[in-house]
Amino acid sequence: MTSQPTPSKGQGDVPLLSLVTPEERYRVMIESIKDYAIFLLDVKGRIATWNAGAERIKGYRAEEIIGRHFSVFYPEDVVARGYPAEELRRAAELGRWEDEGWRVRKDGSRFWANVVITALRDKAGELLGFAKITRDLTERRRNEEQLRQSEERMRRLMDAVEDAIFMLNPQGQVTSWNGGATRLLGFHATEIIGRHFSRFYPIEGISAGEPERELADAAAYGRIEREGWRLRKDGSRFCANVVVTAVYGMSGDLMGYAKVVRDITERNQLRQLQYASELAARIEATREDEKKRIARELHDDLGQQLTALKMDLTALASSDAPRDEDECNALRLRAEAMREAVDHAIASVRRLAAGLRPAVLDDLGLLPALEWLVDDFRQRTRLNIEIVSNAEDVVFNDAGSTAIFRIVQEALTNVVRHAHRATMVQIELICTATMCDVAISDNGSGIETTLDAQEGRPSPSGLAGIRDRVRRLGGTVVIGSVAGGGFGIRLSVPRETVEVPGLS
Question: CA 80, CA 410: separation in Å to the nearest integer?
Answer without folding.
Answer: 92
